[in-house]
């Protein structure tokens, strides 16, 4: 079959340029000393990065984002792996119901979620508004779909039911069987979904802005405020953010291939 | 002049040569098999005939017409794939009708032909099923009907039965053969399964390393393999050098490599008196190292010095099997030692 | 024994259930409840919905949101359709690279994206100045801070997402379908019309509804670009619950419910269309 491969190459190259342009421009801005009335920067510098990483306000914002994300992630890993596992093993009838619940956050945009959360927690018996806990809760919900998919798929791939049966026949209690046999085997999948969730959380702006914006400055809120004051600093933040996202995707890819390789070996051995 | 003529077909992918000047002829109405291990070039040759790959040099002609430069659409060949390649969005009927619609036939004509084809492959009643609702064997029947209904000059089958389980494969083999005979369709069948090739073909081309190692009728290839590759690939021939045979039997042999079929050798208990004089043949001593029963045959592995022989014996109830570790004598009829090229 | 298992299951599921109820279900219910209250929060009324749908200000916001979602999804879809097909025709290495890269840029949205476009096309953006040097004053016909600018930025964040969703669908089209079709006499175009596109259709529809929902719910990108000035549904909700002027949570809730319903609608239509186009799937 004769094909016009050069045409495809052209399309792919154009797409690459289209996608890379905003990123490249941001990068250039972050290393430009002076760039306001010329097409390309006049001179270059790394000072913006230096300034950024010595800016205590930025470092504090990083700390806050990490704190909120870490609490939400740990809560998610612990409660969701237990929940998904128990439903998968012992309550298969609830499976569809659980799946439906975990899909809801997909259909609820950040603004909508914020409306409800503010309503419930700004007055009444429990007041969380303006505290970090309302954001932790919101983030916990936000990453439910991703965590669910990851844990569910891992359980399926390792055929957790058979593993549990095998461990129990060999004399392990349910708890031991879960902790020593199932948990280590689904760890890879859980870590991958946790990394994906983490990269979503560090880029989250809307809910942080509405729920705790005034009192708790996360990276994205700091970025929003810097936008109008110092563009160079802002672009340095964006580039730093993307470097982290890139590192996370790389890590996920590595973990993913390691995970898949294990699977392949299993298949080859069979 | 033959119906299908392939002349000096040559093809390489990058640096590796997959077809080295292959020439072969197929007569009209014949079913021939390209048989060989994976990577021998058989599928590539088939795809070149279909026009899905192009030859670097050489020609392919069908019915006296050179088709090597035509696109697949204009070659008028049909093809059946191992993976069936049914269109998942179409029913059985629409799948089979697809080629006829491309030929812009009238609706009534299409319906008539498709129904006929469906009957031919025994799928009546499944017209409006979708491929994913059918079993593997049924899907392959649809693929066969889809390829046959346009009445191609040749039908190419690329390991069509390899994905199916043994029973269904057997029944499809015989169906395919009878359809081929009824329609007098010229077919080129690719497989790596020598038993399948033996069962189904008029003629077999054994391929190895992009070359035809041997061609001929199934019984001919089985009875007299031309070289070591064919001997090993077709039936599990024992391949021994003349020197080994001399060493084991003490008899003089012409130098060269010999192929001996497992079922021609006889096993005798070592104590049993036998007269070397009138019992012509080569005799050697060995120890039974293992025995497995394969239905009507017992297959022994016999260790004789440093050589392992495979010997088949009919599994009949009144004949007691030899135990592992037993010392035995083996008789090889002299005529059964085929000298290989 | 059975009772023990049930008890164990309840304890195991409790933390998750509490968190989901507390931070997902209760807020949604409270929001829906709130949307049926009058502005003083005392009496039940449909007033908020009537305002939302009839006031030119808010209904314009809804229409604008629908429009920009439709435009950006259609354009993003077309681009991604061509691009992901082209990607499948590249060597494996380039394919992997482009998918990883799309994955990376799919994180590029919201505040950082708005900022990047300001650098490129803002009043003293790279291209704005470049075009000026070439003698074309872009700002006469195009402004990043206008409707068309917003569409441009929205399209950008739709494209990588759409590529990520469509690419696997293309790899679902087996090479041998194309070969079979060719041998049966079909041209390339006939193959795509009769087999390729019908097979892809569920993925196309599914991707489209995800893109549409994605654009409907987007807030940060527009907010960072033009603040609260642009009349979009999400921006309106935002300023009603945390605006500079007096907040109107009940009206905000009603608009949020409308937005949520439209998201559900997009998914429902997706589901229906899928069944209709692909009878072979059911």
From TrEMBL, chain A:
Keyword 4Fe-4S found: no
Membrane protein topology class: Multi-pass membrane protein
Broad class of the protein's primary localization: membrane
InterPro entries (UniProt xref): MetI-like, MetI-like_sf
UniProt keyword Membrane, yes or no: yes
Domain ABC transmembrane type-1: 62-252
A Gene Ontology biological process term: transmembrane transport
Superkingdom, taxonomy of origin: Bacteria
Family: Belongs to the binding-protein-dependent transport system permease family.
Protein name, as recorded: ABC transporter permease
TrEMBL record, chain B:
Top-level taxon: Bacteria
Keyword Flavoprotein: no
Keywords: ATP-binding, Nucleotide-binding, Transport
Molecular function GO labels: ABC-type quaternary ammonium compound transporting activity; ATP binding; ATP hydrolysis activity
Residues covered by the ABC transporter domain: 4-234
Catalytic reaction equation(s): a quaternary ammonium(out) + ATP + H2O = a quaternary ammonium(in) + ADP + phosphate + H(+)
SUPFAM superfamilies: MOP-like (SSF50331), P-loop containing nucleoside triphosphate hydrolases (SSF52540)
EC number: 7.6.2.9
UniProt keyword Nucleotide-binding present: yes
GO cellular component: a single term: ATP-binding cassette (ABC) transporter complex
Pfam family of the protein (one): TOBE_2
Subunit field text: The complex is composed of two ATP-binding proteins (OpuCA), two transmembrane proteins (OpuCB and OpuCD) and a solute-binding protein (OpuCC).
Protein name as catalogued: Carnitine transport ATP-binding protein OpuCA
Organism in which the protein naturally occurs: Paenibacillus mangrovi
Automatic annotation (TrEMBL), chain C:
Transmembrane residue ranges: 7-32, 68-87, 108-131, 151-170, 191-213, 251-269
Name of the featured protein: ABC transporter permease subunit
Domain ABC transmembrane type-1 residues, every copy: 62-270
Organism this protein belongs to: Paenibacillus mangrovi
Pfam family, one: BPD_transp_1
Similarity comment: Belongs to the binding-protein-dependent transport system permease family. CysTW subfamily.
Keywords on record: Cell membrane, Membrane, Transmembrane, Transmembrane helix, Transport
A GO-annotated cellular component: plasma membrane
CDD domains on file: TM_PBP2
Location(s) in or outside the cell: Cell membrane
PROSITE patterns to which the protein is assigned, alphabetical: ABC_TM1
